[in-house]
Amino acid sequence: MFVLVSVEVCNRTLVALFGVMTLFCFVWAFEELPTLEEMSSWLDWNTLVLLLSMMMLISVFSQTGAFEYVAWATVRICARQTSIAPCNCGSIFSSRHKWSILIAIGTLTAIASAFLDNCTTVLLFGPISVRIAGLLHCSPKPFLISLIYFCTLGGAMTLVGDPPNLIIGSSFNLGFTEFLLNCMPCIVFIFPFAFLLMYFQFKDLISPKPPKYNPVVNWEDGSQYDSELSLLHHTPDNLPSPSSPLNDIQKRHSNCTSPSKSEETSVHFDIILEGSASPTTTSYIRDKRKLCICSIVLCLVLLGFLLEPLTGLSPPYVSLAGAAVVLLLCSPKDITDILEKVEWQTLLFFSFLFIFINLTTKLDLSWFLSLGAEKLISAVPVNAQLPVAVIFVCWTSGLIACWCNNIAYTVAVIPLIFNIGYNPEISCAVEPLAFTLALGVALSANGTIIAAAPNLILVGLANKCGHKISFFEFLCYGFPFLVMTLVLCSFYCLFVYSALGVYS
Known about the structure:
With about 500 residues, this protein is mostly helical. It has 23 helices and 2 strands.
C-alpha cells in the first residue's frame, strides 16, 4: 500500500481502501474476520473528531478575512524590523525579509504546537502561511513544508504536543515536567541546524533567479495570478514601447521601481497590497460580527485544550462543542458551504489507515522486530547495552514510523520497550528508552507525507492552492531533514543517558 501511495498512481484514499481489502483477504484465509464493531474500535475517534470539528471551525473563521489581515500584519511588522532593499526579481521584498518572516512563522508554530495538538496548529497557521506567501510573491511550498518541520519539533517538546507523547506518557507514567526536561533540550539543540538545512533546501524557492514572468499565489483564494510588478523588469533590448499598457503599470509603481536615494535601504511595501496605498483593518475584515464570535469561541477552545488536566474534557469534545456553537451562531440555516470545505478525503484516508495498521497487528507481523531487538542488545557487553538500545530505538522509530502512521507504530512498539527494559539479561532503564522512542517517533513525521496527520492536511492545502506537493517531492525535502535530526537526537540521547548517566 505504501508503495502505491508513494508512486501516486491513483488517489491515496483509494489506495488505502485497496490495502484494507487486500488484508481482509489474508485475515479471512488464516483467521476469523473482524466484526464491524471491532473495526469501529480500531478507529482513532479522538483524531478524526478533532480534525472534523477544527476544519469546520477554521472554515467559518476564514470567511471573516482574519487570515488575510494576520498575514498582512505579519509582513508589515517584519518589514519594519528588516531593511528591505529594492529587488530585481519582480518583487520589492528582499530575500532577507522573506527569510525573517519564514523564521518568525516557524518559531511561532513550534511554540504553539508545544501546547496544542499538531493538527490544530497546522489548521491555524496553514491558511496564514499561504496568505503570507502570496503577499511575498513566492511559492507557498517553503512555508508549508517548514510548517511541518517546526510543528513536529515543537510537538516533540511536551507531553501534550503530539499524540504519541500522550500514549507514551500514559504507558510509562511520565508527567508533563519529565517530558519537558528530557525532550525540550534536544529540540533546542536541533533548532539551529534545522534553520541551516532549510536555507540550503529552500534558497532557490525563497530567492529565485530573476524571471521574466512570475506567477505567484493569490493571497485571497490561493489560485495563481500574474503580478504586475513581475512585468516591470526588462532588459534594455526588451523595453516596452511608449504606447504599451506597461507604462501605466510603471507609473502606478514608480515608487517601487525607482526609489529615491533616501529610500534605497527601506522600501515601503504597502503599494503591492491589492493596489492600496495604505491598507487598513477594514480592507481585509469582511464580517466583524462573525469575527468576534469566532475569535471568542476559538480562544475558549484553545483554553479548553490547555485546561484538560483540570476539566477532564479531551480536545475532541472541546473542539466539537466550539464548532457547534460557531455554526449555530454564524450559519444557522445553511452549512453546505462549510461542509464542502472539510477535507473528507483526508478523514477517510486516516480511517482506512487505522484499519490497515490494526489488521497488520492482528496478523502479528511485528513480532520479528521485538525478537531481533532483544537478541541484538543482549549480545553486546553490559556497558554497551544502553548505547546500543538507544541507537536502535531512535533509528528504527524514525525510519520505520515515517512509512506508516506514527500513532499506530507507537502503540505497536511500546511492548518492545517494556520487554527490553525489564529483560534480566539487558541492563537498560525503561525511561531513557521511552524518551528516545518519543523523540524518534516525533521526528519521523518529517520523513514522508503519510507519517503524520499534519503532513496530509498541509499537503492537501498546497494542492488546493495549485502548488501540488507530490510524495517524492516531499521525500526529497523531508527525508534528509529526518536523517539530520535523527543524527543530532542520537548524539543528545547518548550524551544524556549514557555519558551523564541520567536514570542509570
